[in-house]
Amino acid sequence: MIKTEGIVLSEMRFKDTSKILNIYTKNLGKIPVMAKGAYKANSRLMGSTQVFSYNEYILKKGQTFYYLNQGNIIESFYNMRENVERFVYGSYILELIEKSSPEEEENLTLFLLLEKSLKILSELNDGFLKFIVAFQLKFVSFIGYKPHLNTCVSCNKTPISDIRWSNIEGGIICSSCFSKDMSSIYINKHIYKAMIELLYIPFEELENINISLKTLKSMQSLLERYILFNIDRKEFNSFKMIDMILEN
Fold it and tell me: What is the CATH code for 79-247?
């Protein structure tokens, strides 16, 4: 038997009463878990197999799945479902983790980021876009693609003006190095400054900085493309829901 802690990223019904879960665990990374009988009305596994929930698990490893023997709730994060924006941005976080993580590859830093992000988001009432941009920057750094921001990623000089962002180079490039990536895009000084601030600031201090909605929208879109580029995906389903929120 294996004892670990984990957060449910997604669930899929299996036959009439069981679930197949993707769980991001503290010790094992992302793992597929079979929860037999979890859909039964009186199942002792019902609470610990809900999406968003953070639980302590006892598992048995099989050939295809880990099998859930016991689950104890540490934090249900139930109030994620009581606010549309919490739910949408929370779903985006779970999808990012699920789609970017290989199975059974431990990343304790990423697990702790996920747990802390859900805790803060579950209590958030405003400032959702600023929070998710900060999350994107921290997330992409923790999976190995930390943006190079302080100097030009190509020549290492400090850019003064005409700063561009390059997905290919993984950060900013100066006017002398534009030819290294002709698909790079211009970013203004507000985006550049905000990216540095949000990369390093703790979530608890986000309310202390002011960033315009226009700048945050530009950053969110830029980072979305950067993440997709690096994990070789075309889109995230939950991003469509974020788009709908931002359009209103």
Answer: 1.20.1440.120
